[in-house]
Amino acid sequence: MSELTIEQPDFARERAMLEKTWGKNRGLLGWLSETGHKPIGLRYIVTAFVFFGLGGLEAALMRLQLSRPDNHLLNPDLYNQIFTVHGTTMMFLFAVPMMLGMGIYFVPLMVGTRNVPFPKLNAYGYFVYVVGGIFLYVMLFLGAAPDAGWFSYVPLSGPTFDPGKRADTWAQMITFTEFSGLIVAVEIVVCVFKQRAPGMSLNRIPLFVWSMVMVSFMVIFAMPAVMLDSTYLIFDRTFSMHFYNRAEGGDPIFFQHIFWFFGHPEVYIIFIPGLGFMSSIITAFTQRKIFGYTAIVCTLVTTAFMGFSVWVHHMFATGIPQLGSSFFTAASLMITVPTGVQIFCWIATIWTGRLRIATPMLFAFGFFITFIIGGLTGVQLGSVPIDWQVHDTFFVVAHLHYVLIGGAVFPLFGAFHFWFPKWTGRMYSEALGKLSFWLLLIGFNVTFFPMHILGLHGMPRRIYTYGAETGWGPLNALASMGAVLITLSILTMLINFAAHRRRGALAGPNPWNADTLEWSVSSPPPAYNFLHLPTVAGPNAVWDAAPDQPYVTGMRFDKRELLVTKTLDAEPDHKHEIPGHSLAPFLLTLTSTLGLIGSIFYGWWFTVGMIISAVVLVYWFWPNREEVREHLARDRGIVVAEEAR
Amino acid sequence: MRIQSALDPAGPQAAHIAHLFWTFTWICVGVYVVTLLFVLVATIKGRRNAEPDLTKEHTLGIGVSAAAGVTVVILFVLLVASVATGSAVGTFGESDPRQLEVAVTGHQWWWEVKYPDALNPSATVTDANEIHIPIHTKVLLRIQTADVIHSLWIPNLHGKRDLIPGRVNKIWVEADQPGVFRAQCAEFCGLQHAHMALVVFAHTAEDFAQWKASASQGAVTPTTPSALRGQQVFLGAPCAKCHNIVGVDAYGTIGPDLTHLASRKTLGAGTLINNRGNLGGWISNAPALKPGVLMPPNAMSASELQDLLAYLETLK
């Protein structure tokens, strides 16, 4: 062949070194000591999906129970546990961890770095989340799961009306999952503000990353509220502190205010990542930069702020004075404006793009079809008088599923199909993908649309049965049939993924010709993400890259180094070494779990657990010999020469 | 007309809200259809574009801004409509001196209903799981709870209002026409939240006066031997520890007042139809019919039970 080809360096030696530095350790201990953002992100995603399945199973049981009047399949005690665990699972164990897991996996790739800033903490976050989830389900199988609703209102969940350990289980599960949520939020905020590839100034950050940043800030401000709420509840139950006891000067309404100060932003925490998926998918499938990038970023910020000013619309029926509730009505209506603007921008993008329709894009259309209904019923619920009628009825059940499934799950499933080639290196089957989409779209609407009517016809939420004279039987039967279609849709998707995970057509690095940096590396991405850290020349990093786009040199191959850049313009600042594999997060999980779960049964376990945890933390922070040597040398003003390689 | 439906208003309060609901709904349907039409047109256009078209950004900007502007205007109209209705409904009976007052107290899982009489306290009527109101009269419902949070919801007459420990909430209802409406607790309140219903009877003024007169009487003295024996069973068995019957030595306040038990439509707050068979079953083993209910099973001989039922059936 031609002898004139210029020899491209293949960097085989560097790749091998990076693989050795960043790669996995083998065996169970290797699995437990993993700190890479991709394995942990995938663990979040897979675990959250398992919880989605469990929550779905509970939903199926509820639909079976309600499918006909006076059904006695489930007794009231079991039904109450099941709907409580369904809500708790879907909110705390599926939706939030799933979205944060997607963030942990993709944010470092999209901003062009090698790992999250605090890898051990990240591993700890995952483990406590799993432990919290397992704890809840162990209690369910012991017949002692929480039964006062996912919102666990006092006094029903208080010491008088809920003796036993059920409400404690709920409250402590909150502690676990919120730990994990806060940890991921901190990782993402620091990662995005300090680790972006050179050139990725604030106005070039991909919209998915922006959405995760806003979600992380919301987590940081919202989650402490629910931790406070659940901790006060534990104090009331364990130490008779009377925060919520009216007879001792406490107030049960106080619980509701704090809960919804978290609870409403929670909805946005779940669905703003969905908006991020939408932007990613629409950009790739229209092959143009998104219309109104700046407007969309501003609306994300606005939504995140306004999400904190609408919580009282969950409490209109408690008897909030007219003027106060009008303010929250105004805020609740106004919050539709930013999301509306995003939808308009996407429509404009589709209008002028070169639209290609494949499964991810179909799911994006599913968002338009379903979420907008949920948004509009949300406007109705923002109105005080209408809310008085439909609050706590099946109308609200319909509304919230249109918002959460329409706004988060449709884009999420689109994202699964979109990034499946990146995760596995293989393509899924387009036919099965489309089948699962249509099954979900039809099944979802058949299940949840009738619930609007049921609510208006007087059916309250959270009732384990109803009499035939109410006339709610036929629509409930219809809703239960729709649930079968939803199940089929999810099974189709799983079969599609399982069948093509190893045997699908090869995908290559960028099958969709998409624009963000994760598509610039092989599929699946190597453990170190980038052979050379990239630089960025525009908001669509891959499309805007010049043929000779420079890359970052000078990063060590034999150490886990990150490039720290400046917050606004991502100019390189310094290198920072992060820890590698460690068993400390797993050990700390064991000891802190001992303290937190033990404290439910006997207060002193908390003290014991925290003392052992302190010992583990000493191990966690114990410096290695080389670090100490370099540190001492720096103190003495000696520059340590990098060893010759 | 459905008897438990927000879409079948039977009074001005519910009618106001239903009107607002339909206003919102039709506007929302319009917004939905227009938005999806835009998605459809965009899809058709996008499918035809051979290359992305980046030359129309300015026009698109105007379009998006216009759409946002229209959204804001629509929302403002809805806000004004909502606040106006909320204000009208919230202050409905505030300045009407002729209103009737009814005090409703929620219990796990039944409703205690009192008709206080300021001029003649001894004429105060205590009832359970049923509210009787005269039509064309503003009725003030003072609602409170004895235990956890409940929510009173009579959809044909008004939206719901929570019963919160330590607080008394107020709503006004009014019925346009005589009728029977079903109401139900709407805030999850524990094991038997599903079985916490009440029945609202809207009477003409004459019927209401008649009902009130009969309800303010004490219990009828039984005449048949069986009923007389039943009365002794009632007073001797644990029944009287929890239930009140005006006119005999039964002063319990834990359970519903039974002075006019036989005139009620349902048992166990809407769990069962009130007939002799169901009542016998309820007395023998209420927890089997409504798991979690505070009323314990009562063991008694068949003849005692028959006498007791004969007595209770006299309590019209």
Computed Rg of chain B: 27 Å
Give the overall average pLDDT of chain B.
Answer: 94
Give the low-confidence spans of chain A: none
Q: Helical proportion of chain A? A: 55-70%
Attribute tags:
heterodimer; A: mainly alpha; two-stranded antiparallel ribbon; 20 helices; B: five-stranded mixed beta sheet
Structural features, described:
- Chain A has about 650 residues and is an all-alpha fold.
- Chain A is about 65% helix and about 0% strand.
- In chain A, helix 4 runs antiparallel to helix 7 (about 205-240), helix 4 packs across helix 8 (about 250-285) and helix 9 runs antiparallel to helix 11 (about 335-350).
- Chain B has about 325 residues and is of the alpha+beta class.
- Chain B is built from seven helices and 14 strands.
- Chain B has helices at about 10-50, 55-90, 205-215, 225-235, 240, 275-290, 300-310, and strands at about 100-105, 110-115, 125-130, 130-135, 140-145, 150-155, 160-165, 170-175, 180-185, 195-205, 245, 250, 265, 270-275.
- In chain B, a hairpin with a 4-residue loop joins strand 11 and strand 12.
- Chain B is elongated, with a radius of gyration of 27 Å.
- The model of chain B has no long low-confidence stretch (mean pLDDT about 95).
- Classes of the chains: A mainly alpha (about 650), B alpha+beta (about 325).
- Chains A and B meet through helix 4, helix 8, helix 10, helix 11 and helix 12 of A and helix 1, helix 2 and strand 9 of B.
Give a short summary of the structure.
Chain A is mostly helical and 645 residues long.
Strands, helices and their partners?
The complex is a heterodimer of chains A (645) and B (316).
Chain A (H helix, E strand, L loop, with lengths): L11 H11 L4 H6 L4 H30 L9 H36 L7 H23 L24 H29 L12 H33 L12 H35 L6 H14 L15 H13 L1 H17 L6 H24 L1 H7 L3 H31 L5 H27 L16 H28 L40 H4 L16 E5 L6 E6 L6 H18 L2 H18 L3 H11 L10
Helix pairs in contact in A: 3-4, 3-5, 3-16, 4-5, 4-6, 4-7, 4-8, 5-6, 5-18, 6-7, 7-8, 7-9, 8-11, 8-12, 8-14, 9-11, 12-14, 12-15, 14-15, 15-16, 18-19
Chain B lengths: L11 H37 L8 H34 L9 E8 L2 E6 L9 E4 L1 E5 L4 E7 L4 E4 L7 E3 L5 E5 L5 E7 L11 E7 L1 H11 L9 H12 L2 H4 L1 E2 L4 E2 L14 E2 L4 E2 L2 H14 L12 H11 L4
Parallel strand pairs in B: 1-5, 4-10
Antiparallel strand pairs in B: 1-2, 2-3, 5-8, 6-7, 6-9, 9-10, 11-12, 13-14
